Amino acid sequence: MTEHSKPLTVPELRAMKARGVKITALTAYDATFASAMDEAGVDLVLVGDSLGMVVQGHPTTLPVTLDQMIYHASCAGRGLKRAVLAVDLPYLTYANPMQAIESAARLIREGGAQMIKLEGGRQRAEVIRALAGQDIPVCAHLGLLPQSVHRMGGYRVQGRDERDARTLFEDAVLLEEAGAALLVLECVPAMLASEITAALSIPTIGIGAGPACDGQVLVVYDMLGLTARCPRFCRNFLVESAGIRAAFGGYIEAVRGQTFPAPEHGY
Ligand code: KIV
Whose CA is nearest to atom 6 of ligand 1? Predict the structure, then answer.
């Protein structure tokens, strides 16, 4: 096994923050895409519940079930040799610590997840503590929370005013204290993401959260220009590449070289 294909681990992702190496992440829902991005050298593959929108065609992520996440996780996992496999807990499968442990155990046993991701702020601290207490690596997710779309009143940038920004910052600190191993920051002002990244010892992975995050993640169909509207925080890497594999390579190079995200991709 070459150095390039040696499997990465969750502690190694954390060590990348300490070494100042940007973490590259993409979503995948099947073995072929997962394998192509793994071979290109992506560090983290996320089977996101965004599959409800980009694969299943729903307007939100809310209809996605745990069985569907397990199915897509096991498909994507078969394509990986090196990248860490993170999988979303879908809507209302982690409402309390016991339900969260049971749901996470299925993602790990049946789906092959190495890390699970869940959305929400301080109200998730107890669930994260319970999962971490069972040695389950947790990726927390703050900012725009697609599973809370109805409470938020749409898909909007979060943490814009001072009070919301303070709450978001405090939530990030509380979730690290509760045992989160990684933190996704979605659609938050670049300055706030930079302050959170500096305050935490766990890595932050941004999507629409500016260049200071310790890593970046994009929905694969967005960065290949397949979705109807390219979000402001995204770049179409396929138009500038010779094919899909080259687009993955270009994305990894741009994140590592810190040419993506550029100021125009931020808030
Ligand atoms: O579901 C998903 O794909 C996600 C990413 C956008 C971070 O949560």
Answer: 219
Structural domain boundaries enclosing 188: 10-265
Give me the amino acid identity at 139: C
Query: Per the domain annotation, does 45 fall within a domain?
Result: yes
Query: Where residue 103 sits, what CATH number does that domain have?
Result: 3.20.20.60
- Residues involved in catalysis: 186
This prediction has a pTM of: 0.97
- Domain annotation covers residue 5: no
Q: Is 25 in the pocket of ligand 1 (CB under 6 A)?
A: no
Residue 3 lies in a domain: no
Long-range contacts of 244-248 (CB under 8 A, 24+ apart): 244/36, 245/36, 245/39, 245/40, 247/223, 248/26, 248/36, 248/37, 248/40, 248/42
pLDDT in tens, 99-109: 999 999 999 99
pLDDT in tens, 157-172: 999 999 999 999 999 9
Count of structural domains, the chain: 1
**DSSP class of 49:** T
Q: Quick check: CB of 39 below 6 Å from ligand 1?
A: no
